[in-house]
Amino acid sequence: MTKLVNIKAMVKNAYKNKYAIPHININNLAWTKTALLAAEEFKSPIIISASYGATKYFGGYNVVYSVVNSMVSDLNITVPVALHFDHGSYEQCVKALEAGFSSVMYDGSHELFKVNYENTKELISLCKKYNASLEAEIGQIGGEEDGIISSGVIVSDTNEAIKMKELGVDALAVGIGNIHGKYPSTWKSLDFDTLEKINKDCKMPLVLHGGSGIPSEQIKKAIENGIAKVNVNTELQLVNAKAIKEFVLSGKIDQDKNFDPRKISNAGMEAVHKLLKEKFTEFGSINRIK
Ligand code: 13P
Hints:
single chain, alpha/beta, 8-stranded parallel β-barrel, 11 helices, 48% helix, binds 1,3-dihydroxyacetonephosphate
């Protein structure tokens, strides 16, 4: 029996009450457990997300589903948890839904809008069959994610946003100058004019990808203007790597039984847990579940 929920109610509620649901990409089993336990500790709804790269790393769609669904059950997680497939092609979204993912993001942003629109439409009907939710994307998010490199930032078009809303997508990822990965030192700001316009015209939950390294005031302003889901991965990966590096270079790795891979991983997970708390606080998602 699935313990997972889709993202429909969570993002609607977040949009209405001006906070954002944390979308946390899982990189391995320890990451999944850390994210789920943090969500439970801070009473935050959570979107656990796996990209195609992460899914391949885990061993496949069914493995990801089984791990996340079983963990929710065995760890007695009571807050709402969605399992979301991140940046899927049409075929990948179908496979994720068949395996039991409760939500998918179809990334048709590099297609012509007509193709993006038609594929989104078909996936919406498939999602209905599985009681799953669908996130679509318009514009283009810059940077690289799991080997998928975008040629640059293409700012979203409001007319396309309206058409996607009318199709009935549950959340819409917008390209507003956001980038996956590290932001270059020359990067100035999110494009709030475009965000405000899309929000005014669409009045629906919007999604900010590339949520790592954006100044806090900009995240908060984006949430005020319709962002109801923020995707974070790189920043968590960076604090994990830094903590493990310190564990090794300080010589801690040579003490007691610290050669145990679980202890090495725990050093990173403590840092991930700390940053998750900061992110949940920034997104306003703490204590949203009674
Ligand atoms: P970052 O890795 O830049 O945080 O972006 C994550 C993301 O948008 C996943 O879809």
